[in-house]
Specification:
Blueprint lengths: L21 H15 L2 H20 L14 H63 L3 H28 L11
């Protein structure tokens, strides 16, 4: 069997170059992007630019490293490089945040579905308990039924007593008749 047809092991990567951990690089880029988006960075950058321009305009010509007469080319180059790296790092950070938000929404949806199912189950259980309790005899109902039974028994006792009093007893019956 040729190596190309063997699917039991993955092929080696044909990429030539530097290998890196995408998660580590993503975390690094997020840390840079979060720093670039702060007021502290803007204040520091503004301070450095003001000092840069002040030094290169006020210092003697032999000490200037980026003279005003050449249009502050080095400062322009430095800011262009910073912008060219900052934009992709910020986009990478936003993409990673979007992926985390998507995963969070999926988790939230699963939790909401589970909570809804449990709530519906509990509602059905409560309804069945209420139904079962409605069929049960309460203390008041039991007392009412006991009072009615007592009344019926007393009436039957009176009727039985009335029947026994009006019917002839064995002493009242003469033998031989």
């Amino acid at each position: 069997m040729k190596r190309r047809e063997d699917l039991s092991t993955p092929r080696a990567s044909r990429r030539v170059g530097v290998q890196y951990d995408p998660d580590a690089f993503g975390a690094f880029s997020e840390s840079i992007a979060s720093f670039l988006g702060t007021a502290r960075f803007l204040v520091w950058q503004s301070g450095v630019i003001v000092l840069w321009i002040a030094y290169n305009t006020l210092a003697p010509d032999q000490y200037q490293f980026d003279p005003w007469s050449r249009g502050l080319v080095l400062l322009t180059l430095l800011l262009s490089v910073q912008a060219s790296y900052a934009a992709p790092l910020i986009l990478l950070s936003q993409n990673r945040q979007e992926q985390r938000d998507r995963e969070t929404s999926v988790t939230d949806r699963d939790v909401a579905e589970n909570t809804q199912a449990q709530t519906e189950f509990l509602a059905r259980e409560i309804a069945s308990v209420r139904h079962a309790l409605s069929d049960m005899v309460t203390g008041e109902t039991f007392e009412e039924r006991l009072d009615k039974l007592t009344e019926v028994i007393e009436r039957l006792s009176v009727q039985v007593d009335g029947l026994t009093a009006s019917s002839p007893t064995s002493d009242d019956i003469e033998p031989g008749i």
